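Friendly challenge for the regulars: who can give me the structure tokens for this chain first? No prize, just bragging rights.
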Amino acid sequence: MKMKIKIFAFSLLLSVNTLFAQTAVKQDALVLYHNGNYKDAIAVCEAELAENPKRVESYVVMCWALVRNKQYVEAEVRATEALAISPYDLRLIEILGEAKYYLGKNNGAMEQFQKYVAGAQENGSRVGVSYYYMGEIFIRQARYQHADIALSSAVKKEPQLDTWWVRLGYAREMAGNYNESLAAYEEALRLNSSSIDASRGRERVSAKLQ
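First reply, four minutes later:
Bragging rights claimed.
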């Protein structure tokens, strides 16, 4: 009887230690990512997926790290794999959009960002970022009025990013909306008085308004 109790206790301890070890691995990957150790985070996630190929959380962290490490082709491939497992995961949808954006796949990226915004219903942590990328895609396509709408939504979500205000000013400038463009450039300079792009933009549109 005592032997059975000892065996049971040992088995329980082993199970607990295994659980803690698995949790530590998951946390380590995310910590590595947040610390900017993208290659190590990717390696940890690869090890996790070797154990469990359907572990969505590992895919998410890995794809984040791949994009930040500028491995856009790999990020696109792995995010697509993950979405085959979990097709409605908004984190994967958004990061796939980023991968496609950096690969120059404008239509594919736009589709993912629109899906994310629709699914997140304005409450997702990457809604502002998604609107920003949508605005940049519209600028690439010379659809400046559309870019104005998207970037206006972006700065509404995250109003403290001067670089986004600069891009909004540029979109409005290219659309010929000079008063609104000037307002955006001035807001960028209020947030960052040393912004060269905002200063030059303000000079350009001020000259056109004279």
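The chain is about 80% helix and 0% strand. The two ends are 96 Å apart (CA to CA). Your move, everyone else.
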